[in-house]
Automatic annotation (TrEMBL):
Domain XdhC Rossmann: 113-259
NCBIfam families with a match to the protein in the record: xanthine_xdhC (TIGR02964)
Organism the protein comes from: Halovibrio variabilis
Protein name (record): Xanthine dehydrogenase accessory protein XdhC
Top-level taxonomic group: Bacteria
One Pfam family linked to the record: XdhC_CoxI
InterPro entries: MoCofactor_Util/Proc, Xanthine_DH_XdhC, XdhC_CoxI, XdhC_Rossmann_dom
Length: 291
């Protein structure tokens, strides 16, 4: 992948990447001893194909970038500590020593596909704005999306022309919600979604009778029981209780709460901070440098 060195400062890049949910690493020089290119507090931000700001350049910086991108590629999120002797590992002649703290951020943690920009869809988008989700919003009506939504972070609006094409474009492990203004459109989307085995969850808005009708049609079209069972309908029915408040906002609240439960899975590698030995080494080096 091509390298992009940009004039954007590390703090501007950090704000933008956090806002847009793009995976990135913040590299901070936390200690120094002897002669070093920069002092503690120097920072740079690294993505898989771009770098922002500098820790001083040279082989030492290249190795920092390489270590950061290894964290991104291997999805090792959280904190890690890299130590560089500027004359040994780095191949530089400064003769100093630095510790670099790498903070690796996963960006948006989940993809949510929302089919339908009606009243409930609009409330779901508003409620989802502060959450670390990438929202993919579809509607077949040309005037469905108001201008204000195009400014919302991590939100992408698309025209829905063909259910199969739109569903095929979704990232793997997407959580899909179907709530368009048209039942035929809903049904076409459900058919396309259950054909993809890598969709994380499928939710359909509507009454019990609507789902009974859809399930009957799917059976008659020879869809298996397992495929049909993947659909959750109605959405937002937390713990199988029915909601008396039918306002769009109330329904959206239950839908977002349900999504939070569905997406709240512990990561394979839980990271609670630096290892005690690494932290002890860091604090020892820091006290030696400042004494």
């Amino acid at each position: 992948m091509s390298e992009r060195q940009t004039p954007e400062t590390w703090h501007a890049a950090l704000h933008r990447l956090q806002r847009d949910g793009i995976p990135h690493v913040l590299a901070t020089q936390v200690t120094s001893a002897g002669s070093t290119p920069r002092e503690p507090g120097a920072r740079m931000v690294i993505t898989i194909d771009a770098i922002f700001d500098t820790l001083g350049g040279g082989t030492f910086e290249w190795q920092t970038i390489s270590a950061a991108r290894a964290c991104l590629a291997e999805q090792r999120y959280g904190l890690s500590l890299e130590a560089f002797s500027l004359g040994g590992r780095s191949g530089q002649c400064c003769g100093g020593f630095v510790n670099i703290l790498l903070e690796t951020f996963p960006g948006a943690t989940h993809h949510i596909a929302l089919f339908g920009a009606g009243h409930v869809g609009q409330e779901i988008v508003k409620l989802g704005a502060p959450l670390p989700w990438q929202l993919h919003w579809y509607d077949s009506r040309s005037d469905a999306f108001a201008g204000e939504y195009h400014q919302q972070p991590r939100l992408h609006c698309y025209s829905l022309h063909a259910a199969e094409q739109s569903v095929a474009a979704l990232p793997a492990n997407t959580h899909a919600l179907v709530l368009t203004h048209n039942h035929d459109e809903d049904y076409a989307l459900i058919k396309a979604l259950i054909e993809r085995n890598d969709i994380a969850s499928i939710g359909l808005i509507g009454s019990d009778s609507k789902w009974a009708s859809f399930a009957g049609r799917l059976k008659r079209e020879s869809y298996s029981v397992d495929k049909i069972a993947r659909v959750r309908s109605p959405i937002g029915r937390i713990h199988a209780t029915k909601l008396n408040n039918k306002t769009p906002y109330a329904i959206a609240l239950t839908v977002v709460a349900e999504l939070l439960w569905l997406t709240d899975t512990p990561s394979a590698q839980e990271n609670r901070g630096l290892a005690p030995q690494a932290l002890q080494t860091l604090m020892t080096d820091s006290s030696t440098t400042t004494s």
